[in-house]
Amino acid sequence: MHTARQATPLRTDRRIATATAVLLGTSMGILSYGQPVLLKAIIEARGISTTQLDSAASLQCLVNALASTVVVVLCRRMPARRVAAGSAIACAVSVILLAMTRTPWQLYLTMSLLGIAIAGCGTLVVSTFVIKSTHNRDRVLSVAFIGSSAGGMIWAPVVSWGLAAGGLAGAAVLIVLGFTLLVAANAVLFLRLPDLPGGRTDAPPAHEGVLLRHAARAARFWALLVGSTLLTLTQVAGVYHVLFIWQDSGIGSPALPGAVVAAFAGIGRVAAELLLRSLSTAYSAGLTCALQTAGFILLSTGGTMPVLFVGSALLGIAVGNSSLVVLLLTPEAFGLLDIERIAGTIYLWTGIGASSGAIVLGLLRRGAGGYQVPVLLFALLSVLAGVLLWQSGRRGPTKP
Known about the structure:
globular
């Protein structure tokens, strides 16, 4: 009997890990890697400029972050599987409209709709569900984010094949099938906990922790919020501009920098789970920021292939580590009682950071006449992010 009771949480964690890996691999794989392939074909076919596309992409990031406030409310009122499934269907409709885009204003509108819809079947919903529902949350989240990385490697060629076989309509059909089957149906069937006798579930106890209003009175909440925002702002800017940093040195093909970052981000996600077995989450967060700082310093130096490669690899590892450690710092500091609202607030501001990072670095680069000084500044911001995140996680749970 004791063995059966112990096996149930393990089986549940494995099922949820597999389901969330497929879900995030599809939703985030399409958003981060499949969508750019589709958008390239759209702007070439409709005569839309890359400047207008960049503006639409920043708007999409911003509305995605703002939509998180609504997603938090929905997750408190209904099961996560219903939120994810409904959002996935909305994503499918948005992709159809995106493929029909003909003018810049339609591009802004449809990309914004997709950004809003995908907030309900992306990282925020999955991570809060995993944190509240699994016993070994660090391992389950690690598997989910590895799935997200794998999805990027799958969906870019899938969308490319769809474009080659059937044009925009062919690519849209494949993406719609992905959202419908691998996200919506997957969420309904597998994003649930088994019912146990007496109306119980297999979820960890969620009555401990503090409310958002109590968390906001603690200095560690603001350290976590500001540190996470700075980390995301600098990371997204680095990932977006790494191609141009390489090009300024006249090294490598256009596809190489992004491939290096993506490959080492996958390695970083595996490494994060292994590190957390021997290091505290706070120290892991500090190490992540230290790796990112070293990466930025090397990228600012540039000039040779080995230096740029190692700099990009370190940035990629930091990208892979950061998602997991920041998500785990939140329940460790504030418990599970109000995790949706606390995590949602942090997600909102990190999303705003993500939407502005690339623009800020671009403006600084134009003002400085090159990347060296702005990238060194982003290295300093990474150090500050590391100090704040370490401070937020070095004490025990916040008391009400």
